[in-house]
């Protein structure tokens, strides 16, 4: 899942979590108004070491260990952003962010509108999300749809180290608040060539990871590698040619790339880790139904988590969409 790079570009081989750190390091070096804040982000380097050694480079006035208060972290970030700083607030797991929901939705997302443009909230709210690492309760949620539903927030979810660094830098520079979710299942699953220099990847642009002609498969986050594996296996074993589209940004959603891919294939599958009901998969499906229904050759299939609380480890692998279940969904759509 590498990115095409210039032959002369100096790169480093990074995991996804290392790309998070590199993105923070790069932009903190570029802009003194960028601060990192959260529980144990300083000396400990964060629960997944995404902020490792940043405090040594930038000091504890820019890498701030906060009390254990998610609402306090988010509220402080909103205040900092209102007065011109660019805070990057870390929440140790997405399942811990709910006490901060009021600050993010009631204040960060509305600040520009409420102040009639006088203030903006250039804040990034980072969190590892998703399951697959045998964590206890509250550590494995995929509740990205909560934030997609809220006007005023952008929601970005990278699936490669290259995109992670570029999208994080872009999120920090964005004048409005960004929910930046990092699929922790693939934090250290593979490496990618990542430029050592400063670069950005635009928010709101999907990426076609695999060209295909039989069916379009839309996904994001940790489901992207699983979907790519399923597509490659189907091509090799059954001759089914699936196009895989990594949405990358869920808000704004790149509707044009979704529609162009579906027009080409006439069949669609959406793969999401989150529960089925009310998820982003439903929004992708509705976009196709409303705008390009006449291209449709088969019902759109959703391959998702189940409408239950995320289970503990004994059932975790059964809950998550994995290549075999994704292949079943693709095959069913193609054979309709």
UniProtKB/TrEMBL annotation:
Transketolase-like pyrimidine-binding domain segment(s): 14-189
Q: Which cofactor does it need?
A: thiamine diphosphate
Coiled coil stretches, renumbered:
none
SUPFAM superfamilies named among the record's database cross-references: Thiamin diphosphate-binding fold (THDP-binding), TK C-terminal domain-like
GO terms, biological process: organic acid metabolic process; sulfur compound biosynthetic process
GO molecular function term, any single one: oxidoreductase activity
| Pfam families registered for this protein in UniProt | Transket_pyr, Transketolase_C
Q: Keywords on this record?
A: Oxidoreductase, Pyruvate, Thiamine pyrophosphate
State the name under which the record lists this protein: Pyruvate dehydrogenase E1 component beta subunit
